[in-house]
Specification:
CATH class of the largest domain: Alpha Beta
Structural class: alpha/beta
Shape: globular
Oligomer: single chain
CATH superfamily of the largest domain: Periplasmic binding protein-like II
Helix content: 25-40%
Largest sheet: 5 strands, mixed
Number of strands: 10
Radius of gyration: 22 Å
Strand content: 15-25%
Number of helices: 11
């Protein structure tokens, strides 16, 4: 006896794996201070989940918040300032409550000078002609640099020397390229091997508000199980070990 198969059923069975694979993808919006740490974390996570497609887009937290408010297709948002995820949650653009994933630090870094011997007061030296910081209006690391310079009482004196990066990774590039003599950048970037060949000096965190960094799953990621799973992974020991290696302070430490 011949068994007749419904051609439509055959088509659905053939296409099912394609649909399944297509659903295993997510897009992450992340603050630029995470560029190296998150790259390592994503690479490790993909070893455990080889079918998963992960796209990470880095930028300034303020600008990415605006993009999400305007419908940008991001499933998870890792901000350098928890205030931005809190704003998204309050306005209905996030489906999880904002959670802290790390606390960052800022440092003085230079390619041509021994920054390990510098403090903020030294930035008034006429020999230092250009100082790079991230744009304070939308980059949390830039705002913290501004706060520290103001608390030290030298903001007005060094302001004419300031050159502004679009985000903290761009700021580090400016200092690395020589476009600025000194940069006030994220510790997480200063510890990347290419930059770690040069010294740095930690900025006293009592001089600025804390860089409390938070994340949310966005409204777009509401039904994306991969996004929720990755957010949980970021709170685990493997991800924490990588974050600590890049100088981040973990919640509760």
């Amino acid at each position: 006896m011949k068994v007749l198969l419904n051609p439509l059923l055959i088509l659905l069975v053939v296409m099912l794996p394609v649909f399944s694979q297509a659903s295993e993808k997510m897009t992450i919006a992340a603050a630029s201070d995470l560029r190296f740490a998150l790259n390592d974390i994503v690479a490790l996570y993909k070893e455990r989940n080889p079918a998963l497609e992960i796209e990470v887009i880095y930028g300034s937290s303020g600008k990415m918040t605006t993009q999400i408010l305007n419908g940008a297709p991001f499933d998870v948002f890792f901000s350098a300032d928890i205030g931005f995820p809190e704003k998204l949650y309050a306005e209905g653009f996030a489906v999880t409550e904002p959670e802290v994933y790390a606390v960052g630090r800022i440092v003085i870094w230079s390619r041509n000078m021994d920054a390990s011997k510098l403090n903020l007061q030294d930035l008034t030296d006429p020999a230092i002609r250009r100082i790079a910081i991230a744009q304070p209006s939308h980059a949390p690391y830039g705002l913290r640099a501004q706060e520290a310079l103001m608390a030290t009482g030298i903001w007005e004196e060094v302001e004419p020397k300031l050159v502004f990066g679009e985000n903290i990774a761009h700021t580090a590039q400016m200092a690395e390229s020589g476009a600025a003599d000194v940069g006030i950048i994220a510790l997480s970037l200063a510890l990347f091997p290419d930059l770690a060949r040069h010294g740095y000096s930690l900025v006293d965190d009592a001089l600025h508000n804390p860089l409390t960094q938070g994340y949310v799953v966005t409204s777009r990621g509401k039904d994306n199980q991969a996004a929720h799973a990755f957010a949980r992974y970021m709170a685990g020991d493997e991800a924490h070990a990588i974050m600590i290696r890049y100088g981040f302070i973990m919640p509760g430490m």
